[in-house]
Amino acid sequence: MTDKQFDLSRRSFLDRVLMAGAGSVMATAAPWAAMAAGAEAAGGKVRLGVIGTGDRGRALIQNIAKTRNCTVAAICDSYAPNLAKARQWVTSGTPEFADHRALLDARGLDAVVIATPLDMHARHTIDAFDAGLHVWCEKAMARTIDDCGAMVKRAQDRGKVLQIGHQRMFHPTYLNALRRVKAGEIGSITQIRASWHRNNSWRRPVPADSDDRRVNWRLYRERSAGLMTELATHQLQVGNWFLDAVPTRVMGSGSICYWKDGREVYDHVALIYEYAGGRKLIYTSLLNNARYGCEEQIQGSKGTIEPELGRIYQEVPPRTLALQRMQADVKRGHKRTIPIGGATWFPELPVTTPGESLGWGEYDETMLQFEGFGQAVRSGTPLPGLLRQAYQASVASLLGEQAMDRGVAMTWPTGLVTM
């Protein structure tokens, strides 16, 4: 794509999704997206050091390479094979480090990208802030609610940008879905159903030069909350975003139901998040059946939106019962044939109509969030509203873990960091 085509694509994105019809409402609901979509490459590229070059880190490096205003200037991983795999995606001669502190001490960077295991996020983030750098960190934020708050607080104290990887907030289809919700097209939202189902053990083979807790860190409690932090965080953010609120409380059940292989985190979770006004988000995730995959169903009084599938469905008004039609006819003096026999009840099966497409944008949401981050670093000002969404989603995921562990409903915590 040429620079001219890219610029036209950018304007099209703004016109079709962010500014059409509900522009002022969208500016409030997703202020970060409009600012990111308008990012320029002025001032030279932002120099990023990537800490963690495993599968996710390497995917991020490839996305950064697509941006107009960011470049990978250093890479770091304590596991040498990961560094070796990352070399093909960076410029020859890019500095490499085995320790994150050595990367921070080397200077020459504007910011770091953290794609390490969850339990290391807080330490790496705070060390980067103390070294005078901005931070982009993978979701979830941290292993504990306290650590999530500590990351936010240190960013505030140091006057640095902290951005968390929630790419759905930059996704054209999700932004279009939100625009249509704000325009009232599906009425009042009362329930969101979300799921992320897979059919695999989530366990990776362990090389001879490593160990299980290092390679399969997602399966151990001290390192991860499993499905809640690695998957649910994304969809809890979507729920909070579309409901424009945080939960008042959560209840749930978790179990190691299928993969009895020594893991410590649940492989099957089911939770109900309650919001003000009786609204609910129902979340399930499991690792032994992929039939329904990853989806959200945003249900309102006039319709349903499924942003992951890119569809919107209008609610069909209920049919008038034959007896009610007859009573109305009598009042009007009308006559019609009245059936004597036949079915009086039909099963209320799911609607199978294809619905209407929400449209698929030409933008890559992971790339776009890095362009937004680059702009935030250059200006020294975070994209508005973005960190609050990420912080609240991480708190919600960890609160859900507590509800399952304790077997009681957990209320939304007080004393969170304000922003």
Tell me what the structure shows.
With 419 residues, the chain is an alpha/beta fold. Helix content is 37%, strand content 18%. A nine-stranded mixed sheet has the order 14-13-12-11-7-10-9-8-15. It has a six-stranded parallel sheet with strand order 3-2-1-4-5-6, with helices on both faces. The protein is globular, with a radius of gyration of 24 Å. The mean pLDDT is 89.
Would you count the extended β strands for me?
Answer: 15
Strand content: 15-25%
**First-residue to last-residue Cα separation:** 38 Å
What shape does the CA trace take?
globular
Described by strand count, sense and barrel closure, the largest sheet is: 9 strands, mixed
Task: Summarize this structure as a short list of keywords or feature phrases.
six-stranded parallel beta sheet; alpha/beta; globular; nine-stranded mixed beta sheet; 419 residues
Structure at a glance:
It contains 14 helices and 15 strands. With 419 residues, the protein is of the alpha/beta class.
Helices and strands, with pairings:
Elements: H1 3-18, H2 23-29, H3 31-37, E1 46-51, H4 55-64, E2 70-76, H5 80-86, E3 96-97, H6 100-106, E4 111-114, H7 121-130, E5 134-138, H8 145-158, E6 162-165, H9 172-182, E7 189-197, H10 212-215, H11 227-243, E8 249-255, E9 268-274, E10 280-286, E11 294-300, E12 303-306, E13 311-314, H12 322-332, E14 356-357, H13 365-379, H14 386-406, E15 410-411
Parallel strand pairs: 1-2, 1-4, 2-3, 4-5, 5-6, 7-10
Antiparallel strand pairs: 7-11, 8-9, 8-15, 9-10, 11-12, 12-13, 13-14
Helix pairs in contact: 1-9, 2-3, 2-9, 3-13, 7-8, 8-14, 11-14
